[in-house]
Structure formats: C-alpha cells, structure tokens
Amino acid sequence: MTTICQGCLQGFSDSSGAFFRHLRTTTNPACIRYRQERLSYRSPSPQDDSGSEPGDYFGNYDQGDFDDFDEYEGPLDEDDIYVDDNDHDDDDDDGDDGDDGDDGDDGDNNNNDDDHNNDNDHNDNDYNDYNDNESDNGDHSDEEDADYLEQERSWEPRPRTPPPPPIQTGSPGPSDAASEDDISARREARFLVEGRLHTRTHVTAYPHPGAGARLSAHTGATSNEQYAASFEDGPANIYAPFVSAMDWEFARWAKMRGPGSTAVTELLQIPGLATALGLSYQSSQQLNTIIDDNLSSGRPRFTRREVRINREVFEIYYRDIIACVRALFGDPEFAGILVFAPERHYADEDRTVRVYFDMHTGKWWWSTQLALDAIRPGATVIPIIIASDKTQLTLFGSKTAYPVYMTIGNLPKDVRRKPSRRGQILLAYLPSTRLEHVSNKASRRRMLANLYHACLTRVLKPLKHAGIDGIKLTSGDGVLRRGHPIFALHVGDYLEQILATGTKQGECPKCPIPRNSIGEYSEHPYELRNLDRVLDALATLDSPNVDYQDYARACKEAGIKPIIRPYWADLPFVNIYQSIVPDVLHQLYQGVIKHLIGWLKNAFGSEELDARCRRLPPNHNIRLFLNGITKLQRVTGKEHSQMCRFLIALIIGLPLPDGMSPARLVRAVRALLDFLYLAQYPAHTSETLDLLKDALRRFHANKAIFVDLGIRLHFKLPKLHSLEHYVLSILLFGTTDNYDTQYSERLHIDFAKEAYRATNCKDELPQMTTWLERREKIQRHAIFIQWRLAQQDRQNSMQGVVVHAPQGRCSLSLMLAPAVRQHNGSCLSRIKIAQTPSVKALKFEQAADAYGAVHLQDALMRFVVQYNNPDLSPAEIRRRAALVYLPFNAFPAFHRLKFILEDAQDLGIMEDTHDTAHARPERRDKRGRLVPGRFDTVLVNENGDGRAIGVDGYRVGRLRLIFKIPSRASDRLFPGLIHPGHLAYVEWYTPFAAPHANHGLHRVTRPRGRTGEKPPSIVELSKIRRSCHLYPNFGSAVPREWSSSTVLDQCDHFWVSPYTDLHMYMSLF
Q1: Is 825 in a helix, a strand, or coil?
Q2: Cβ distance 653 to 1034 under 8 Å?
C-alpha cells in the first residue's frame, strides 16, 4: 500500500516506513502542519454526534499525555526509553525525579539485580590469562567441528531479492563523500603515534625524595619470617602445623578444590583411610579446628555490625580497612613490585609526549602527593580502590549479595586484575535488601540510598584520620614507611555510579550536562560537577532552623539527592566526581555496542546479517555464531566482545533501504569500534588519546544516518555521553584496565557465588565469611610453604646436596614444546609446535590430495636453491630449481602452530597474546561424522623487512602444510648450513591494497592460478608473524552456497580484519 502525505501530496510505501521518516525529518511547512494535525487527532467517542464511523475509544487525553511518546516502527527496546525533565513525577518530596530506572539508557539497570549478572564476563580463569581451551578460542575438538558442520548445513530462509544499489540524488554531501586522503592521513598519523609506544620511556621522578621513602635504614623481619616464628616446630617441619606433605596437600585439596564438608568427613571416615594417608584429622570439623587455631591469612576477620535507618536495623559484615591495607602492603608476594611514589613517563627525550599506564603515571597521584607534602612531608600515598556491585547468588529465586572489594593502587594493574594473585580483598557485604515492604517508591529509594551511604561510611571511616596523619606500614621485605591511605577510585556500573554520587538516573554522574544535551558532541566537554557547591548544600543539614524540605531544596539546586551524609563527604583529598571512572564492560560492551547491534538489525534486517555470520571463516580468536546474532537473548559482555571482532564485516557492501548511501553508517560503526579498541590500550600517550577523541568525533559526525533511517529520534543515552569522560580519567588514573568492572565482577565467583554454595543457604553471611577466611588462610599457608621449600633448596645447594623437586613442582617450561623465536630485528612473536608430528610420514601425493599442496615439490625445490644461494635472482632460482633432486618421498607433518605474541607496545606492561593457526585436512570424528578441513590464513613477513606496526613488508598467505624435511635429506640438501627446521607451504594472496575510504580495511584477493600471480612458496616458520582473519567480500547479498568451512575457497576477494584481538589492532593498519 501507499500512504499519501497531505502536505506535499507525495506517496510513500507502507512497508518501508518511509512515510513516518518523511514526517519526522521534513522541513516543508505544509508537511509540518499535517504532522501536527495527525498528532492532535484522536478517535471519536461513542458520544460524538459527528456522524462519522465509530472508532476505538479509550478516554479523553491531553497533549501532555503524549509528550514522552516516540514514533517507532517495530518493537520498542527498553533501552530507548528516555524521560524528559517535564515528565518527572512531582510527588517525590526528596527531589528524586523519575529515579526508578525508566529514564536512562540502561535497560540492564532497571532495578533488576539479576540483569547485573547478565553483564558479567564470568570465566573461571583470570580475564587476561591465556586460556588454552580450544572450544573457547576458535580451536575445537573433532566433535565440535562436526557439530558446526551440521549447523552450517541446517536450513535457513531463502534470500530475498536484493534491493537496488544506492542511488545518489544530486551531488553527495560532505558527510557522504568518500575521502581516501583522510584515511591515508589518519593512517600515517597513527603510524607515527603508535611508533612512540615502541620506544623506551623517559622517566621524570617526583622532585621531593621524601615521597615514598623508608622511615629508617633498619630492615625488620619479613612477613614470612614473622609467620614462621608463630609455629612451635620451627624449621624442623616445613608443613607445620600439618605433620607431613600428604597431610597438608589433602587439607589444601579439601578447602580449595574438594567437595563440601559432609563429603570430606564421609571420605575421612572410611576405615583406615586417614591412617594410611598419615592424616592428623579424622573429620572436616577437626581440619577446621587446625586451620582456625594455627593458620593466619594475614588479613583481618569480618566484623558484624548493625546499621539503623528509620528505626529499622540492617546487618553489615565488614573488615577493618586499615588492617586490609596493612595486609596487602605487607604481603610477601608483593615485595619488590609495590610502587611508592608517582612518576611522569614520556615517549620522547624532549618530554613533550606523556605516557600513561599504571596509576602512578597519572596526574591524580602526583597532585595528591603534592597536597600531602604541603602538610606532612615524607608521605607514601596508598590509593584506595573500592568496587561494589550487587550480584545474584542463585540461578532461581532472588537471593543476592552486595560485596564490596578493595585493593591499593601501589600494586601493578596486572596483579590487581587477577584473582589468582590475591591482590583484591573482600572488604564488606552490604545489606542487599530491596525494602519491598516500603510501599512508597520515593521513601524506598531514599532509604536505600541512605542505607548504602551509612554502611560505606562505617566501613571507610578509618580513612578520615589515617589519610591525613598516616599510619606505619611494613612491606613484605621488612621496610617501614609512613603510608597515607587515601580514597581514590570507586569502580562500578551506572547504577553504582549514580548511587555513589547521589545523582538521578538518566543524568551523568560526573558532569552537570543538561538531560536534553546528553548525546550531543562537543569539542569542549562539560567540567566536572562542583564539589564545593555540593558539600555546602550537604552542610546545611547541620545548620540550625533548617528543616528537611530546605535541605532537599538546597541539594536539588546543587545537583545531588538529599542523602544523609554521603560516605565520601568527610574523606580527605576526595573528589567523588573524579573517582567515578569509565566502565568498559557496561558502558561500551553492554551499552553502546549493544545499542549499535540493535540499530544495525533495524537498518539491514536480521536475515542478511545472520546469513553473513554463518559464513565467516574460522579463526582462533573468532567465535562463530552459526545461528546468527540478531536473535540472541541475555547477551553477555563477553559475547558482545566476540561480536565486535567481526561486526563491521556484516555490513560492508550491504545496501540500505530507499537507495540511501551506507557510507555514513559504515564510518559510524568503524569509529565506534576504533573507540572501543583504543579505550582498552594498556598504555596511552597524549597522542593516542587524541586518536581516542577523534574516533568519538567521527562517530558523532556520522550518527545522523540512524535518524535519517528512522531508527533513532535522539541519542540521549548516558552511556554514550560517558565516552566523553574517558580521556580525563586516563589522564588522572592511568589506562582503563586499572579500573574496569570486568575484573571486579570476576571476583563474584570466588567471593560470593562459591561462598554461598558452601553454605546451607540459611543465615548464609556468617558461613560465607568463615568459609572465605579459611580459604585465605590456606592460600597464605601455601605461599609460605613454597617460601620454606625454596629456602631449604638454597641451603642444600650451598651444602652440595642435590634435591629432586617433588613431582608437583616441576618447571612448566620443561613441559612445553620447543619455541621457535623470530630474529627479524626484534622478537615479535614466538612459535610453539608439537614435538610429535600429527602425521609421521606424509607422502607428496597425499599432501596434494588431502592438504591442497599441489605444487609442493616445485616450491620446495625453489626453496632449496634460495636457501643455499640467497642472493640469486628469481629467474635464476627457477632455472636452478629444475635441477634439484629431492632425496625423500615422505616427511613429518604438523597440524597446528601456536604463537606467543609479545608486548605490542614494547613497554613491558602488555601481557602476551596467544594465537593459533591450523593446517589440517578433512577427517572423521569418533562417531563417523565428517570434520571439515581447516587451512587458516596467516600474516607472513615476506622478505624479512616487516616491522612491529603497519602492513608494509607483510603479506597474507593460506597455510596449507606445516612440515619438516627429514634430517638425512637436510644433510644432502643443505651441506654445511644450519638446517632450516620446520617449514610451511603457503599460497599467497595479493599484496595489501590501499585502505578503503569508508571502513579503512585493506583488500586482498586469493590466488586463482592466473598468469603473474606469485606461486605458492615454502617459508620458514620464523617468518610467520601470526594468524589473520579475513572478511569475505559478500556483496549486496551473500551467496547461500557459501559456508564457513568453504568460504576461503569460494570467495575471491576479502578484507583483512584488524579486530581479531587488541594485538592485531595495534599492529595492522
């Protein structure tokens, strides 16, 4: 059907939604009047005497009833709800306008605590630790690959007729005009900027030597020595209070890995078991007694206190925060890695380009040290970082916990973000009540806020005087310093941020930007909220002759809820609006990226997007969503992260409806992905921060395409606005991996969920705290025993005694396969390959049939000539290769390479990235099902002149075969030379084309046997930098005969992905 606009008399198709888009975006006065007439129209009531046909009647309405109504084609996502200032209820006497979760962009924060878990990126391994679980990293077992093949062949809807290509009406505007010069200029600028991160930094130390200085030259006993003195057996029994190694190992297993207490007791009561193992306990209760009476965790015990709010009493379990600081500062595991004074790092000798990574390189620590030195010189700043978040304890039901974690900024960030390093302490369990018995919403919100701040005030109260006066702290090596614990950061999602700052939902917790301006871009963002004005308003509560209404009015004018004394109001050197920091997990992955995927679904439809998902080639770092991404529900942050690695591939070449150009949409997606990856850099310079700001600017410059498509009416999304504050937080506190919520939410597993499972689910908090204390004691004792064993080994080695390490203490490096290290300038990657070949004797005919290495012998003969005569020309190599005789017809073959990609920034702070490439043929699984072959694409340093960053010198190749020439044949083929070792047969793609003007990706073309193409080659493994992922050039509609396992053979043209992981993004541009 066609709908006629009565303003301009043009017809619009109902199915495309063009009519509603026309009315929303028109500037024609006649069309505007017609739009207003439609908005003011209502169906006549049965009482109308107009004689017109009766319509549906739902009552009389005022125009104001429709103020918050948005025209929308399709289901309304709850994240799109926005309440304007005029829509707030007036009956909320505390000034809490519309704070019930209906006016923000956070659909996951609508007072639904279970949705917090949906944002969690839970993984039983540390977040940044390499997990060699093939099913999680694109490397699958035969059964999983067979399952994927069945999914590839499953039914899917037939493609619709593709829409016509974009039609340009008139000359393109500046926002649609493709600019290759801009892309090239940005690439060159980025090359220079990234290059600065590959040089050693120049450090400017804090000018006053007293900062972080020790109090005396005397060094006291270390933490381990003090702990050893508490055991009566002394050095005679290393495992004391346990009688033997078996006694200790069983106790550790029972508390760290074993079943529940009842199961352990039943196991120990098996006749003769405890005696046979030589155990000193007969039940779990006896074991608990040994742990409770003899072991120390070095960390304080929990204290139960009651907090009274409006004549109602609530329980809080918490630890002495000063004792927690002493425990972390004095932990022997951290001796030697603690930071005691701020520093300024620069990328150039002139000290003009600042470098930021850990907290001590940010501006906050430096300025705080200056403020402390003005009143108490010789101070050691101890930045206190807390993280709070309510979490669901059960899969079913509503049992929740509200843990608060703490750590100190003196620890390096790579220690703080790994639970296995014990750099975080569970500080408190806050009351998790929802006060559902309070019927008035305003009163309930007010009570919850006051309860939250009252509890945190009690927990953090010792910091008030300790931050000014200081406390004596002994580090794990026995050195004494005067530390000043100062509250620095509060890590949390959006709900935690507005709760901590006392702002209203839908507002920015950091700056006073008006609600109607949220989502608009400005070169000069708003300043932070005025802390002095807020503190003055809070102080009016203590003034005489001031009632609550006056206090609420003063707070509203200052931009804060009328909270009865926020927890941060009396803490020294604290600006809570600085302390609220970016949250990559919830603001980007579960916020902006979640919105973006929904917008793309509305723009292109789910059918074609899902069809492209099903046909992406496999890669170690890519999760294949063979059922598509548009119909997934309760998507986690980890899944959104995996989608971002191929998101732009789903829209390249897709046409928009009504012939609109997709250029702005593609550029908007590219800009957001650039921001996402840049925001996660482990180190930033003042120049890379300019790249971060430029990425945000580019998104805002192109975002109007979503309005033109009728997908959005506005961008008043607090999570989108929060991106403007990333640069400031990085300047103050270092990079975002210092304070991202994904690391604190990972702690929920150890400190909340597993603790709850260990209880009888009744009066659980006392049991949870006891269970945690015992685990901490076991962990501390395990470290202590390792220290004593190391001491014993040193003493024995000095006496000439050979000590054989126990079976459980063998070196991991001895068990690893040999690594092939690259030596092209700097070590860019290490390669590990199995010691045992996958095929011991593969013949040339089998290599051609099963692996596709058709020209293996010709390529190998050319390699032999070139290896022996590296200075020969290509023509001479081909001529001499014809005379080479290969004295073997079978060789060992390998199916997998593992890469260890070292710090992409050369600063020593980025953890190694692990990657894998496969070259294996088709086979059958245990059930006889077909497992498709997999021959990955890799990035090859073609002539050995490739650098750490940029594509110059590199070329994409298809890894067809990994093999090794037999040693006897190598003796004959390479006389007098070092044998080349493991080799790879590679089919070459064309060289990198110039980056595309819109999405900035490089295009390559697969070999098709044409004249002039570079023939397949044999390369040494040391020339392979890593795997790389290719996006097929799908065109306007993906051919349905393509599949994930065959697309590399069926598609001709590809785009090289820079988004497979952060290392690739830093290297490939």
Answers
A1: coil
A2: yes
Residue 97: C-alpha distances to residues 111, 488, 538 (Å) = 15, 29, 19
142: confidence class by pLDDT, cuts 50, 70, 90: confident
Closest CA to 276 of 251, 249, 246, 256: 246
> What does the pLDDT average to over 586-611?
95
CB 300 within 8 Å of CB 324: yes
The answer to whether the beta carbons of residues 992 and 955 sit under 8 Å apart is yes
HEC string for 318-387: ECCHHHHHHHHHHCHHHCCCCCCCCEEEECCCCCCCEEECCHHHCHHHHHHHHHHHCCCCCCEEEEEEEE
Alpha-carbon span 758 to 604, nearest angstrom: 48
Decide if pLDDT at 257 tops 70. yes
**Residue spans of alpha helices (H) in 502-581:** 531-539, 548-558, 576-579
Tokens of 893: 């073959």
Residues 1032-1060 have pLDDT tens digits of 999 999 999 999 999 999 999 999 999 99
Q: Which helix (H) or strand (E) holds 1005?
A: strand 1002-1005
Residue spans of alpha helices (H) in 703-740: 704-708, 718-722, 726-733
H, E, C per residue of 161-213: CCCCCCCCCCCCCCCCCCCHHHHHHHHHHHHHHHHHCCCCCEEEECCCCCCCC
| SS3 (DSSP) at 580 | strand
What's the N-to-C CA distance of the chain in angstroms? 48
For strands 380-388 and 400-408, give the pairing.
Answer: antiparallel
CB atoms within 10 A of CB 112: 14
Residue 25: pLDDT band by 50, 70, 90 thresholds? low
* DSSP character string of 97-138: TT-SSSSSS-GGGSS-THHHHHH----SS-TTS----GGGTT
Asked if pLDDT for residue 921 goes beyond 80, the answer is yes
Which amino acid does the sequence have at 997? Answer: A
Number of other residues whose CB lies within 10 A of the CB of residue 524: 5
More confident residue, 723 or 761: 723
b vs e for 33-48, b when ≥16 Cβ sit within 10 Å of the residue's Cβ? Answer: ebbeeeeeeeebeeee
